[in-house]
Amino acid sequence: MAEAGDSSESDLIAQVKSGGRRAFDRLVEPHAPRLLALARRMLASPSEAEEAVQNALASVWINRQRLDADRPVGGYLTTTTLNKCRDRLRRRKAASFLGFGRGLEEIIASDDSPGPEDTARDRQEFARVQSEIERLPVRLREALVLVAIDGRSQREAAELLGVSEKTIETRIYRARNRLRESLEFS
Fold first, then answer.
1. Could you report the per-residue pLDDT of 24-69, keeping only the tens digit for each?
2. Phi/psi of residue 90, each to 5°?
3. What is the CATH number of domain 116-186?
4. Is Iron a UniProt keyword of this protein (predicted)?
5. Which residue intervals of the chain bear CATH 1.10.10.10?
6. Cα–Cα distance for residue pair 55/87, rounded to 1 Å
7. Where in the chain is the domain with CATH 1.10.1740.10?
8. CATH code, 1-114
């Protein structure tokens, strides 16, 4: 990215953090087509993809204080969108496991707006996951956050932490397993 683009994005992020809704629209607009294409590939459903992207952008807006003016916003938007897609895929898997038929999925998918129960459940689930991530040992947490949340490559994370790529891979594997176990039993 050019300096001017970085400066403009940094200015937009500062405005967004101050509550500038128009600045937020200008910040995410260039990324929206790419995010929507990614969600469509992940979910294979245009309506679910649109909802996942909308939920991701709403989440970014709600947590706008986490935006970092020194970093490109594209990676953060991508990670958030992927997380929303993963949430939808987990819900599908749970519905399938519980024996809900195909017809029920179509009825659920036809309503594109989340209800208050879904919103509350999503917030509770987010808080629960965030709490479990905070309980991870620091070495596992930092590897997971750098790669899975910040969107860095394993090589970049290894360089930042001064360890090998294999160490990062192992730490991420262990962090995910611990999260999976703790979230299944809590």
1. 999 999 999 989 988 888 887 888 899 999 999 999 999 999 999 8
2. -65, -40
3. 1.10.10.10
4. no
5. 116-186
6. 11
7. 1-114
8. 1.10.1740.10
**8 A C-beta contact, residue 183 and residue 129:** yes
**134 and 141 Cβ atoms separated by less than 8 Å:** yes
Kindly report, residue by residue over 100-141, the tens digit of the pLDDT.
544 444 444 445 566 777 778 878 887 888 788 878 888 898
Q: Which of 47, 53, 7 is nearest to 28 (CA)?
A: 53
Q: Is the dihedral of CA 55, 144, 31, 50 positive or negative?
A: negative
With a CB cutoff of 8 Å and minimum separation 6, the contacts of 78 are: 31, 34, 35, 38, 151
| CA distances, 83 to each of 73, 86, 96 (Å) | 16, 5, 20
| Distance separating alpha carbons of residues 178 and 54, to the nearest angstrom | 30
168, with CB counted inside 10 A (0-12, 13-18, 19+), is: buried
Taking a C-beta distance cutoff of 8 angstroms, is the pair 157, 146 a contact?
yes
53 and 81 Cβ atoms separated by less than 8 Å = yes
